Amino acid sequence: MDSIKKNISSYITTSSPGERVSVFGCCLGSFCVLLMFLNLSKGSTRRSLWTDRLCKLNIIVIGVSLLSTKYGIPLGCYLAIFISGLDVIVCSLYCLQAVYSLLLDSVKTIISAFLSLLIAALAFLYGQALLETVPGSW
Q1: For residue 69, which of 27, 16, 32 has the smallest C-alpha distance?
Q2: Integer Cα distance of 131 and 128 in angstroms
Q3: How many CB atoms are closer than 10 A to CB 32?
């Protein structure tokens, strides 16, 4: 993990801003395309619809910002800066919701396993008590 951090930090310090825009923009666009393909298999849910829209918007904005940096028009980058901030907020909220859901599902699973084990133990004890009350040798 440290080597990845060192590679990224050395790339950030040694490359030009235009080069970083191109590389990070292409990476972000690739992740958006991958996310759109992954959402195709899920069907049409509410989450996949807004994710698809956000990914399509990201791809368009990335294309516009890459063209604006290539031709030296800084006005085209303002929308990309706004969408990048929106991405940070939306993806952070999605991450928090996923962690919350994971924790809540884990707690539900632990409680469910405990209750199932409790029911099994009570059923065992009940069966044993019934065996002791029935006449005959067991």
Answers
A1: 16
A2: 5
A3: 20
Tell me the pLDDT tens digit for each residue of 33-89. 888 888 777 766 776 788 888 889 999 999 998 888 888 888 888 988 999 999 999
The candidate with the shortest Cα–Cα distance to 91, out of 138, 123, 55, is 55
Give the span between the Cα atoms of 11 and 20, in whole angstroms.
8
Q: Exposed, middle or buried: residue 79 (CB in 10 Å: 0-12, 13-18, 19+)?
A: middle
- Global pTM reads 0.69
Copy the structure tokens of residue 132: 């002791």
- Residue 57's region, left for phi above 0, alpha for psi from -120 to 50, else beta, is alpha
Q: Which of 11, 33, 38 is nearest to 22 (CA)?
A: 11
Torsion sign over Cα 124, 129, 130, 134: positive
